Amino acid sequence: MPYTYAFDHKHRRPPMELKDLLGGKGANLAEMTSVLGLPVPPGFTISTDACRAYLEGGWPEGLDAEIARQVRKLEKAMGKRLGDAADPLLVSVRSGAKFSMPGMMDTVLNLGLNDESVKGLADQTSDERFAYDSYRRFISMYGRIVLGLDGKLFDAPFEEAKQRSGVESDAEVGADVLRELAESYKRVVADSTGQPFPQDPADQLRGAIEAVFGSWNGARAVAYRVRERIPHDLGTAVNVQAMVFGNRDDNSGTGVGFTRDPASGAQGEYGDFLVNAQGEDVVAGIRNTLPLSALRDRFPAIFKELMGIFARLEEHYRDMCDTEFTIEQGKLWMLQTRVGKRTGRAALRMAVDMTKQRGWKITREEAVGRVAADHLDQVLHPQFAEKPAQLLTKGLAASPGAAVGKAYFSADDAAAAAEQGEAVILVTSETSPEDVHGMIASQGILTSRGGLVSHAAVVARGWGKPAVVGAEAVRISGRSFTVGGTTVHEGDVISLDGGSGEVALGEVRLTLADPPEEFTTILKWADQIRKGRLAVRANADNGPDAANARQFGAEGIGLCRTEHMFLADDRLPIVRRMILADTPAEEEAALEELRVAQKADFVAILEAMDNLPVTVRLLDPPLHEFLPSTEELELKKATKGLTKQEERLLAAAQSWHEFNPMLGTRGVRLGVIKPGLYAMQVRALMQAAVERLEAGGKPRVEVMIPLTVTRQELGLARGWVADTVAEVVGDLPKRVANKLDVLIGTMVETPRAAVRADEIAEEADFFSFGTNDLTQMTFGFSRDDVEGRMMSAYLEQGLLKRNPFETIDQGGVGQLVADAVEGGRATRPGLKLGVCGEHGGDPESIDFFYRVGLDYVSCSPYRVPIARLAAAQAVIANP
Amino acid sequence: MPYTYAFDHKHRRPPMELKDLLGGKGANLAEMTSVLGLPVPPGFTISTDACRAYLEGGWPEGLDAEIARQVRKLEKAMGKRLGDAADPLLVSVRSGAKFSMPGMMDTVLNLGLNDESVKGLADQTSDERFAYDSYRRFISMYGRIVLGLDGKLFDAPFEEAKQRSGVESDAEVGADVLRELAESYKRVVADSTGQPFPQDPADQLRGAIEAVFGSWNGARAVAYRVRERIPHDLGTAVNVQAMVFGNRDDNSGTGVGFTRDPASGAQGEYGDFLVNAQGEDVVAGIRNTLPLSALRDRFPAIFKELMGIFARLEEHYRDMCDTEFTIEQGKLWMLQTRVGKRTGRAALRMAVDMTKQRGWKITREEAVGRVAADHLDQVLHPQFAEKPAQLLTKGLAASPGAAVGKAYFSADDAAAAAEQGEAVILVTSETSPEDVHGMIASQGILTSRGGLVSHAAVVARGWGKPAVVGAEAVRISGRSFTVGGTTVHEGDVISLDGGSGEVALGEVRLTLADPPEEFTTILKWADQIRKGRLAVRANADNGPDAANARQFGAEGIGLCRTEHMFLADDRLPIVRRMILADTPAEEEAALEELRVAQKADFVAILEAMDNLPVTVRLLDPPLHEFLPSTEELELKKATKGLTKQEERLLAAAQSWHEFNPMLGTRGVRLGVIKPGLYAMQVRALMQAAVERLEAGGKPRVEVMIPLTVTRQELGLARGWVADTVAEVVGDLPKRVANKLDVLIGTMVETPRAAVRADEIAEEADFFSFGTNDLTQMTFGFSRDDVEGRMMSAYLEQGLLKRNPFETIDQGGVGQLVADAVEGGRATRPGLKLGVCGEHGGDPESIDFFYRVGLDYVSCSPYRVPIARLAAAQAVIANP
Fold it and tell me: Which of A729, B275, B488, B538 is deepest in the core (most CB within 10 A)?
């Protein structure tokens, strides 16, 4: 396989499909040249193969010869030679990975200029100023980008020169001064690197190519890939292209153009251009650009030609395109094109519009495929509308949406300030159930500790409230916090974006959350596509959340966590009474109080989800979660002393204390140790169902046993549930009882349950994969512990391709899920299968779950639209 | 299938192989009757099928009819009828499960007596006193055992009667008094149960049979099965047998006999008998028994007959037998036989002796198969030689061996008392590395918290020191502890048995630990059998332990835990310096100090294990294990204040604190975050190897990476190791370097590593299964947290058949091991495979590991002989 391909190379497949090999930019240049026949300056692409070979074993053998051959071909096509003292060919060198990637080396222009060829350029263009300006630009660009020198080293002499010449704008600097500047720039390079500025264009080219290759592993590029989930082993391609100049004269110019508006999605051209300028000037924003429509008057023929190209591009790519172009002395050149990035609003509008396009159109399946999860997030939640002026830190993006408010450092303070009408951000090390009133009152939540399943994160997501958690750089001390050198006091305004994890000082302008009408259209189409293939449910723990989830299109509840019912302020004392009970009678009495409370909760949920399935998970967390911490009580004991009740709480907390609560007495194990607990919960649930029935409702109840490891365990628990159901139903007229629809199933969240799914299915009507815990146990990763420094190190070093808590680890955890599906269905072909871990809302994981044969996914209410879309995309992708 | 079988039923297979169906007792009675033709009173067995059917669905249909048929057959054989007023047939009813099982209903004798038949018995025997004594014995036995009445209800009238009669011994009580006693016993039954004593023999029989069935699920029986790992679903058989009477006259008697001495294993008969007595009298120890040899003079013909039977039994069973017999008026009856229980010494001696028996002999394979792990434990460790007079509690049996000493409550106090020459037991809530001096000084260790992998347990096992841990009933308060109502003060003598978990007040006599010569013989034979099939290594962390392990026959080290090297008193401050380091230079300096210390440790280990493989696991535990606890420091901060150093320690402890340390930043994750750490350890190890080489030794080093989850991770770590090896070896002459034998491999201890073993094997020369952690993660069981109340509940309720930390869970964890073996060897056929979890010393698990194809097991040094034996047994069992 060759390492290099000319833009006009005849590939066997359309070049736009060869982005793996040619990178995105190279593929599109080849597509425009060899397929569309558009006016593209000739050039060639050095493939990603070459980059990977270089990164593994240094400069690849034979690459020099190939490049020399391509350069000769290019010289022939252009009728000029690189470094020619009379009429030099100049080239640009640009990186171009499969995915657009900031942080990598970007562009070196005017490569091929040296002390001799600059004269040739001056002669050929009869413009000495232009030639030396190009030369000094090239030296500084090469110095900065290829040699890694500080840009200021070049800015200073330029400013000096302007002062000396007594001029203000760059354009006024004369040719002589620019020639001198080129000389001093060369001295800067020699002084800083110990090597003279390379004069041989072949050396310049190789230096630039190596710089592109090397930049693949630059810190910013690596961090970007981690964030954007781009594999580290793709490598980048390099594009070498003949230069054209938009800065030759006033009959020249350069611009960027979109085939329609990337912000609103509106039809019609959109973009900016500059007369007599190079591309970098447009991007740099040094001069005020003109709107693209101004071309119509200024260069009517060019405008017409460009609009023709836009139409052809849209038709060819069947999507909105983003282009760069240059006009050199009246001739239009296309420098780049790609399918353009767009806002969420625009994505929705374009997708719908393009199904009704004249001339060409996309199908509804394609339209659904054009909208990404991020697009929906954008229209569902406010976001930062501008780059924050003073970014403080980045934490974990725990719950999407942006918020602005005054910082308060305790739930009480936050609630009090909100009472006064203030917009509040709650800032705290971590939250607990006792902080819930403050969290409700706040616009957003910022914590310095905890991971994406910490209390703050889980609760915020459930409410759709913006949250950034685990912001480790935030050091809270009393009523202020410091980040780096900045201190933020109570009442200072901060902004946070829970979709990006950014935290900023002061007020950042926010976009509005306003789903356009196309939102509904696209989701309707998505639902039609996935209907009967993959259902979407929501995780919701109370009536309002359930109602909210239904609004978002949830087709049932996949996970109702009953522990949240235990944590409410008015319930916790009862739960503690149950734990502290000295006699069975006391325990019974406490359980009875809880039953009454839980029943009311269940009635509300079943009502909100009438005629849709509601999966209720019996109590799961270890009991000490309902007790104060031992540390707290021991500290109080040592300092202020304890009340008698506190002494009892301390003893209980010590007795239930666990070294690794994640792997302790929780889930069905609690049921084994306190069987009355589960019976009480099922009684409350069934009584609620009966109440709904009697009110004319259609309750559909699924009782779920958590943390099963053996068939025997599930058999025992199933017995309790069935007995309690029979007990409640036994009192009913048969006619009513027959309408009750109750399934009994289990979470599959331990590796053992997955391995022994065949046995466990004997006792289960359904499985719901708890992929959070399954991931924790399969990897041995406690999410709260590893999600900070460890996960970052693992992702940056490529030890993990993805954070397995965000996207399911298909090879490991996913293998266990697939095995369990196979084992479970072998025993019970009609076994109902779903997932209720956080992965249920992740598009890539949803695709996996669809492929292994699950019946539904369940996620937080605010994530339901994304899951509906992703489910449809999974169906489309796996016909 | 019938539910009942007469003893003379012609089974298709030898009855002794039908213990599943007939129970042990029934099978042996049938064997003696139908195969050996010995004089056995006729009878029949109600099978375990009937018991299981009864326990599931009540009294089985058709069973009554079958029993009636068997009774008629028995009546015909004996020429008597049950309940006959003239000449009644009497029967015994005995339980008999597959495995001998205390806690179940044992025996009801004389069944068939009632107000009428007692007269017939009196007439037939011409012995009214005998008849009424038999009747009143029957009523009280039935009352106690079948009806569950308190024995005291019957003792009181008897004592009264003796007082009234003015006699002292039972034998002096006359026939009239006994007749009255029978009447008052019947009143006791009627008063206590509200029902008259059953007069119909068929009712009596059914009652007794139901009582046997029901006793299968009695609390003591269940607890016994949990302890002895007997499945709960076997059920028991019931044996109904015609009575013979050893208490008819002085020409009668009863006894128990062993075909050789079950205590020493010496050849020749052994046992006790009583003239004119019933079996229960021998067992009850009411009268002084005569040695079996006395039969020779008293009943020479019977003695000769019995010795003939003994010889036939030994030849038939090819093992030592345990028998019960009765002489009724000069005729010998065999009531029971079974292969006899024996002490460890006896087991070893018999096994060796029987390979050289005249007439019949066993093979060496059989001899090896005859010795159990418990037998070796007995000869390797002292044990309680008597039942403790005052048992305080039972904790977890953490390290076998018994010890007696004075209780001390801190490591310092224990060490000081030991210094004064006292035998000491250290009693503490839990131990930490700072208590090691006190643990060394003690005879045994008792802790009130922690599981079988707690610090105390692990350290004690490594030293072969008796330990009972997690004795939750022990409440320590200052220098005393209470258990129930008893308080034990400092200096009070207590005894503990780390093999049974028993803790007793006062001195309990101990057996000596003294392996007889046959110990060596059996292990030599075992080694010959397993040679080349399954090797045995030891887990050892320092030179003396390694030397000790080699003495016990270890063929290398399967796990050298380098963290123990970090915990020594003189190392911990250096480790903390490393953790607290503010600059890379400080960290480097601390690592360098550690390197020097570790190198010396490695030299000692490699020397002790010269020319045998030594697997060194790089640092595994989370760093906070080397820091003081946050609770402790925070408490001190709140009360006394902290020094500056302590403030730093607190900050570090908080920063490294984890919610679930088991699933946190440990193992290779530490290496990723602090790569210098692993490089230092490998450098120390390789320098030690070089030193050994230069001293003429043959170091064989295996470097093991802990907690791997991905191939990438292992590839990275392998790189560090290989680089450091290359760096150290690079300085050596090639001739020397070539002699260095270094393998690089990984623990497989996360479910993910097992699932992705195919990939991971690409980077591994060997796998060592860490089945402790693998079990924890596969089940989601934190051993420290679940091993107390939860595990007990699970075993008692049959939710788990075995404690999966003691014997590997073949269906779940074992399936992952088997998958990993397959995956690993598919990638790398020569992959070396071992296990270094605690299961490596468990015989049943060893059998499993042999079957799935591991190359070696590794266990604590004191467990090595057991593992050698078990490995040979595995080879024999899986030809």
Answer: B538
What are the structural domains of chain A? 4-242 (3.30.1490.20), 253-342 (3.30.470.20), 381-512 (3.50.30.10), 531-622+658-877 (3.20.20.60)
- Burial class of residue B56, CB neighbours in 10 A (0-12, 13-18, 19+): exposed
Annotated active-site residue A836? The verdict is: yes
What letter would DSSP give residue A171? G
Test A669 with B752 for CB contact under 8 angstroms.
no
Q: What are phi and psi of A312, to 5 degrees?
A: -65, -40
Which among B174, B46, B182 is positioned nearest to B113, based on CA atoms? B182
Chains A, B: CB contacts within 8 A come to: 191
Q: Are strands B321-328 and B290-291 parallel, antiparallel or unpaired?
A: unpaired
CA-to-CA distance for A597 and A591, rounded, in angstroms? Answer: 10
Give per-residue pLDDT as tens, A609-663.
Answer: 999 999 999 999 988 888 888 888 888 888 888 898 888 888 888 888 888 999 9
DSSP symbol at B197: P
**Mind listing the pLDDT tens digit for each residue in B738-765?**
888 899 999 999 999 999 999 999 999 9
Q: Which entry of A51, A836, A839, A859 is annotated as an active-site residue?
A: A836
Taking the CA atoms of residue B470, residue B475, residue B481 and residue B482 in that order, the dihedral angle to the nearest 10 degrees is -110
Tokens found for residue A441: 């009152």
Minimal-distance CA residue of chain A relative to B782: A663
Q: Tens digits of per-residue pLDDT, A345-371?
A: 999 999 999 999 888 999 999 999 999
| Residue of A634, A751, A790 with shortest CB distance to B635 | A634
Inter-chain CB proximity A662 and B782 less than 8 Å = yes
A 10 A CB-CB count for B602 gives 28
Q: Is there a catalytic annotation at residue A11?
A: no
Which residue among the candidates B51, B321, B560, B836 is catalytic per the annotation? B836
Interface test with B, best of A632, A747, A799, A817 (most B CBs within 10 A): A799
Residue pLDDT, tens place only, A537-567: 999 999 999 999 999 999 999 999 998 788 8
Beta strands in B285-370 (DSSP E): 290-291, 321-328, 331-339
Q: Is the pLDDT of residue A848 over 90?
A: yes
Distance to chain A for B218, nearest Cα, Å: 19
Query: Which has the closest alpha carbon to A246: A326, A316, A338?
Result: A326
Choose among A665, A785, A815: nearest Cβ to B755. Answer: A815
Say what the ipTM of the complex is: 0.84
Interstrand relation of B700-705 and B613-617 (parallel, antiparallel or unpaired)? parallel
Measured from the Cβ of residue A210, the count of other Cβ atoms closer than 10 Å reads 16
Preferred mutation among A625, A639, A713, A752 to probe B, highest tally of B CBs within 10 A = A752
Q: Catalytic pick from A455, A564, A624, A839?
A: A455
Asked if B88 and B123 count as a contact pair (C-beta separation under 8 A), the reply is: no
Q: Tell me if B777 and A630 make a contact (CB, 8 A cut-off).
A: no
CB contact under 8 A, A780 and B661: no
A233 CB neighbours in chain B (<8 A) are none
By Cβ distance, the residue of B751, B785, B799 closest to A663 is: B785
**Distance between CA atoms of residues B564 and A256, nearest Å:** 65
The answer to whether the Cβ–Cβ distance between A709 and B661 falls below 8 Å is no
The answer to whether residues A715 and A693 touch, using CB atoms and an 8 Å cutoff, is no
The verdict on a CB contact (< 8 Å) between B658 and A816 is: no
Q: Which residues pair with A745 in a beta bridge?
A: A704
Nearest of A392, A399, A383, A385 to residue A494 by alpha carbon: A392
User: What whole-number distance in Å separates Cα of residue A807 and Cα of residue B381?
Assistant: 53
Strands A43-46 and A88-89: unpaired
For residue B816, what is the nearest residue in chain A, using CA coordinates?
A755
